[in-house]
Amino acid sequence: MFVSFYKNQYICRHISQDVYLNQLLLMKKLFVVSLWMVVLVLAGNVRLQAAEGDTIVVLNERFDAFTEGSENAPGATDISGTGGKLQKNLPGWQGNRVYEAGGMLLVKGSLTTAKSDMSTHGGNVRITFRMKAVGGFGSMKVQVDNGTAQSFYQMGEGWQDIMLYVIDGKATSSVKFTPEYAFSGILIDDVKVETSDAFIAVPEALLSNDSDGKSFTARWKPVTNATAYLLDVFTVLDNDRPEYLVHDLEVAATTDNVQTMKVEGMKEGVTYYYKVRAKKGEYVSGYSEAMQVVKAISMLATPVATEATDVSEAGFTARWEAVADAEDYNVYLSKIEEMTEDREATVISEDFAKVTEGTVEYPQYLKTRLMLDQYTVTPGWYAELSCAATGYIGLAPYGSSPALLCSPALDLSADNGKFSIKVKMKGYSYSGATTGDTVMVNVYHADKVVERIKVTLDDTQSDYVINGTKGAAETYVELEFLNGSHKLYIDEIAIVQNLRKGDVLKTMMSVTNVVGETSLRFDVPLSQTVRYGYTVVAHARTVVESYPDYEIGDIYSERSNEMIASVVIDNIESATAARFTVKGVQGGVVIESTSARPIYIYGMDGRLLKRLDAGAGSRFVNLPAGVVVVKAGQETRKIIVR
Questions:
Q1: Strand, helix or coil for residue 487
Q2: What is the pTM of this model?
Q3: Which range, of 259-268, 337-346, 632-641, averages the lowest pLDDT?
Q4: DSSP-based three-state secondary structure for 40
């Protein structure tokens, strides 16, 4: 896959960034999908055929004789046995677990038509029927004789009209219908089999994978016996009418596995679609589905975050430079707080009070891999094989696969990397609380395990304190539950550190999606001890590899540089106060102080560069070139180092 994903310090190592941001963009994508369906209709995506010549109807069965039961309450008697109602009313038909449903049939096993002459018109056959999966999910496999089977899937309520074409009908052919993945069966009605010289299958359009915004290659699967294809390329105007770039362009059929046609002359910034019909002599098929032309992007440039504006104690405006081909941006906000005293500080804490579904006895099982933002105060928590019980996140391993709960990336570099995990958790089975279950605490630096701590659960307690020693600037803390027949319920979890006065606590606050802008206002309180940092990630849709062909997917840039918004005295060359003076010079700064005091020097990315206990007098501090922030007590200076 040529798609590049940025490395997100707030996303667990187990999940790619597209999974996370897809959830952030879900509402926008639902709108896009809805609009897309409208576009398809407006573009003429109606499968009509030209005149079909001398069509012969081989079979046309509406199942009117099967009146017992109803669509919503089918009969309970299997009518497919020898001498049963199916064979009495439809001689030659066979089946397995077939039930009446008020003028239609419910098929749970299989249903096979009587043998019929499908050899006329060279065996060129069209089969149509209606299907409805009971329960809203399932597929129907259709096979003529021993030919290639085709499966038709359904997700959602309602009836679906199915049409398929076969080119090798014989004098004694039959059609077999077999439900798949449908435990409650599939309703079937209006089965019709016809032959005609005019029948030609509708081509299946494929996504273009090479659009550069100026040209693209239209792609579609070949249709057996097609002699040519008619290609339309169009955009949809404000009045919902298509404007054609190419209309009924005839493309000769080839023996290639994928038919293609290069199209040029696209206008910049215009969204195009294409659809195709197959030709066989004088006959023309219906239209394929319309495919959107999406620009193929191999990578997005890394955004450049620029200095915040409108900075005050009430907030600031984050800004960044636009990225070519980006459709939107995700802005990450972090709080940077300087400790005013020695104390135990909470780096992150969750009580899962936002979980309001399921119970311990009857949990609500969640997606196999899931970002937990809807259940947490701080974004970025991630789980695998999880479940929800009101007030808890549960870990529910399956077989030999462990269940996982992983924190966002945390800065645990203070106190020489020592930290504590305070967690309320219990193991449960169907008979109640368990004892002896094992929880592994894994500490990661990026994607590398640096510490593993084993915890054995005791059913007499639920509060555990787990001490880690390998904290760093980018640390993930993961709970791994191993017992495949039990569940682990987590009530509260907090990660704490002992911080000294002057140490910095950095926590993630939010992720905000921004469309059409390169700035974002944050109304947050700033002070001499509280600053905020922001980084930006660019996002776009593109064409990605997917089995068996391509699909529209997401591409993300690397994370931008971090900019810090702070309320400081802005004196670039030098700043003088009654108590100390700081001056930028070649290779560092000169600090003059009238009394001894601790002094902290930070880079513009918020990192602590130096901490020193400066005595009274003058002192040179060696520093790399750039802008630094020097703090002594409540006094702050921003200085340029040459």
A1: strand
A2: 0.66
A3: 632-641
A4: helix
